[in-house]
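From the methods appendix. Each design record in this collection lists the tokenized structure first, followed by the designed amino acid sequence. Records were kept in a plain field format so they could be parsed without special tools. The example shown here is representative of the layout used throughout.

RECORD:
FOLD TOKENS (124 positions):
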């Protein structure tokens, strides 16, 4: 009788452990972030949007990029927090080979539960 009770206890413990591990690795909660950006400097006429698309695809983030009438580039990035962080670094420090980034401004950063944009593209 005691052995049976111990088996149940160990089985219960095992099931509880599996449930906890599954909950920790599941898609529950905020697993993505979204952020808007504006990049200032010599960022138009230097293939900045094209390189931005390529970097976004390489990192696996979604969003869009667009030139403004003020000579800046704006857009939005969505994805896993670490990948969005890498994209923010690229937008603020790297850019296209011919670009000269003076500064990048990031606003409206927020957690999201699912990606709201499919792919990454240029808007006009």
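DESIGN:
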């Amino acid at each position: 009788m005691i052995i049976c009770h111990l088996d149940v206890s160990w089985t219960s413990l095992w099931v509880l452990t599996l449930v906890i591990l599954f909950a920790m690795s599941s898609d529950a909660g905020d697993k993505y972030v979204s952020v808007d950006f504006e990049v200032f400097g010599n960022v138009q006429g230097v293939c900045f949007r094209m390189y931005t698309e390529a970097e976004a695809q390489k990192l696996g983030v979604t969003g869009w990029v667009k030139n403004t009438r003020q000579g800046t580039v704006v857009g939005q990035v969505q994805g896993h927090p670490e990948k969005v962080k890498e994209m923010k670094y690229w937008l603020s420090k790297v850019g296209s080979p011919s670009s000269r980034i003076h500064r990048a401004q990031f606003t409206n950063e927020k957690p999201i539960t699912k990606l709201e944009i499919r792919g990454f593209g240029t808007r006009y």
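APPENDIX NOTE: Residues 18-28 have pLDDT under 50 and may be disordered.
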